[in-house]
Design goal:
By secondary structure, the chain is α/β, with parallel strands linked by helices. The protein has ten helices and 13 strands. An eight-stranded mixed beta sheet has the order 5-4-13-11-12-10-8-9, sandwiched between helices. Strands 1-2-3 form a three-stranded antiparallel beta sheet. A two-stranded antiparallel ribbon has the order 6-7.
Length: about 350
């Protein structure tokens, strides 16, 4: 019996040291749902509102999901074999923080099943970064906004640590490598799209982490004008609906961050929509150069394809990061296809 216990303990310690989520899945397969029996739940303008939190419904669309997976496979096939390709699919809040007892009463598809389907269609030569379970097991933290469709910088931190595990790189230290700032009184997209629904009148707040190595980012805007900006910009005097734009200047076609404290030729390309914005700053301690492409806007400044960008930059890591709502949008998937 003692030998069996020691053997199991060794396995657990091995997985824990590697950051693997298998330990949680084996010993704590599903976090306990919060009691929402006394929380008022309603729908407002096609959004679910539970107490002071709004949620977007999710509908799985197989044909769009198949196209998304095909684009990732195409990217893999077009790039040199020594370039690593990562795909990060981030669930939206309705699958993470909302109690299953509430979610199951509504017509919204299971995002874990959708992620598994899409990852099953993507080639094994692409590294699929699993973040769903990590977010679920940290659901009690402030990882999604209540009045907005984005995750918070805390949610993005978990996506970043999952990426580091998958990439075999050492995650930065949140306390030592970054300086925390906070912007109060944030009202996001759900607040406006529900016509300022009364229970959402308590604002969110935005926490951001300034990389200590450098806060400089060079941006090419949609009008092709160059802008020297901040990785984390002080938006304390901005409109309270714009505070999410503190991250990397918002949704810009092309941006470059250079960290001269990383003394090698390490470079990555992040291909993203707005869920990538709070994710990118965490990469600063890991790479000499970070190239950021917002595929929704890149064609406004260049007709280059992803293979051209990789050749120009010499980047060895290509990171696709999208929220699951994107994978049901034929418009957004079509724009991603245009880049690849």
């Amino acid at each position: 019996m003692k030998r069996i216990f020691c053997f199991v303990l060794c396995i657990v310690m091995t997985f824990a040291a590697s950051g693997c989520s298998l330990v949680r899945e084996v010993f704590d397969p599903e976090p306990t749902d919060p009691d929402m029996s006394n929380v008022p739940v309603t729908t407002v303008n096609d959004f679910l509102v539970a107490g002071n939190t709004a949620y977007e419904f999710y509908t799985f669309k197989k044909d769009v999901a198949d196209k998304y997976a095909g684009i990732i496979n195409k990217a893999r096939n077009q790039l040199p074999s020594d370039v690593r390709v990562f795909d990060i699919l981030v669930p939206t809040a309705i699958d993470v923080t909302l109690a299953r007892s509430v979610r199951d009463k509504y017509n919204t598809d299971d995002q874990k099943e959708a992620i598994n389907y899409i990852y099953g269609k993507i080639a094994d030569s692409v590294t699929k970064v699993e973040v769903y379970d990590t977010l679920r097991h940290n659901r009690d933290e402030y990882i999604y906004f209540r009045t907005d469709h984005h995750y918070t910088s805390r949610g993005a931190w978990y996506a970043y640590t999952c990426f580091c595990d998958a990439a075999g790189i050492r995650a930065a230290d949140l306390d030592k490598d970054f300086t925390q700032v906070m912007f109060q009184n944030y009202y996001g997209s759900f607040y406006s799209k529900t016509d300022h629904y009364k229970t959402l009148d308590t604002p969110d707040y935005v926490v951001a982490y300034i990389p200590n190595d450098t806060n400089d980012i060079k941006i090419t805007q949609k009008d092709k004008k160059k802008l020297d900006w901040d990785v984390i910009h002080d938006v304390s005097d901005w409109n309270n609906s714009s505070l999410y734009n503190c991250f990397i200047g918002g949704d810009q076609p092309w941006s470059v961050i250079t960290n001269n404290n990383v003394n090698d030729d390490s470079s990555c390309i992040v291909i993203k929509e707005s869920y990538g914005n709070p994710f990118v700053p965490y990469l600063v301690p890991n790479y000499h150069n970070i190239y950021v492409v917002d595929y929704r806007h890149y064609s406004a400044i260049s007709n280059k394809k992803l293979a051209d960008i990789v050749a120009d930059t010499g980047a060895k890591d290509v990171i696709f990061i999208n929220n699951m709502s994107m994978t049901r949008s034929s418009n957004l998937v079509g724009k991603l296809s245009g880049l690849v």
